């Protein structure tokens, strides 16, 4: 603006016309109307997107998450080499499975002995800290899977063992006997193998090839301990 | 001598000798190493080999200090350096702990001065769970023989087992390392082991107890004690032979005291595990158990509702 003032002062003397020389001639006493919309073309889409998840019904929100969890359950039950579990990880499924398993495994409150099955907190701690330890182990060995992806896979692969727990509780309603035990043993072994196969299908590829066994062995130990807890469950 | 694994083992030694000979730039350390040539100690016929090994170790140590900047302990890469092992290396180390040999020091030949934390951690975890599980299995088997014994899952034993094993395998090496550091001045030849190397020695020496604990399922008492004594002897021999090169130059009383303490602690661990997790179940033996920590009342309770896993 100062430049314009100077140039208008010198306007009469210099031969080349300075900048903004004719500016003072313009009268700006009347308002120049400014019209038109200053909207970004994408903005209307964004506004729709925001309102679509904010204003949707609660049922839609819950069903979307439930469908994601259900889809992952299907991937665990029929393990194929796919990336769905890894790409869109979530921890709802593992939480639900862990709470279900811990609730079913805990000994009744009437049991005041020190010996007995695990308490709710013990199962919870074993599942979550076990999964965290295995994930840390896998990352320290040089695996290229992220922390939460690995937690997600390990948690979802508890699904077969939760099914085994349900079956065992049903079988225990019948009369006890060696047949009872054999059925439960068979079911638990089958589901244990299923869990191991499902989790290694997802996890083994992320490890360097000469360390695969080192990364898979803790997974084996983890599911073995959970299977042991399921097999030794005795209702009071 | 014709076994294939003997041949491959010798290949390793040649390779490490070649490796030791090429980096020859550590002049400051070589002054300290010259008196080695005329030390003669009765450790078999590989004294000269031992001297070469020491050269290799200190040269390597100097090189590693010079070349690699150790990342800070707050970075993830620092801890990753402790897990830098392959499956074959871990298996090799386990084999080395199962077959201790006087001339092949565990730290030199197996660890190659690159200790790892994978082995000690997971061997301790496996041992803790196997102890608790097989202890529970003996209760199952005893109940099949004698239905009056009340079965219970005894889950608290998992907690006890894991705390005991982890404390033993990590605190005792800490104490040992501290002791060796304190006595460091007496040794001219060889530096003390690092803390991780002592943890590795202890961790891998516990591996032999895993099959032993599984074999303790066999309910024959003298066989159980036999297995226990064999496993303890093998494990303690591994420990002593691994520690011998470092303790060798110390004064006699100190060396003897240290070795006997190590063996004593190891035997206490084995004995404690045997008595606590595999309590002899016939009731007349219960009174004579020295363990003060909780005798499981399950075996003495009148069974309320024995919904047992197996009934005979």
Radius of gyration of chain A: 33 Å
Query: Which strand-content bin applies to the residues of chain B?
Result: under 5%
Structural class of chain A: mainly alpha
Oligomer: heterodimer
Number of DSSP strand runs of chain B: 0
Number of domains of chain B: 2
State the low-pLDDT regions of chain A, or none. Answer: 1-12
Strand content range of chain A: under 5%
Distance between the termini of chain A: 91 Å
C-alpha Rg of chain B (nearest Å): 23 Å
Shape of chain A: elongated
Element pattern of chain B in H and E:
HHHHHHHHHHHH
Contiguous low-pLDDT stretches of chain B (5 residues minimum) are 22-55, 283-312
What is the distance, rounded to the nearest whole angstrom, between the alpha carbons of the first and last residues of chain B?
53 Å
Average pLDDT reading of chain A: 80
Would you tell me the overall average pLDDT of chain B?
Answer: 73
Shape of chain B: globular
Largest sheet of chain B: none
As a percent range, the share of helical residues of chain B equals: 55-70%
Helical content of chain A (DSSP H or I, runs of 4+): 55-70%
Major sheet description of chain A: none
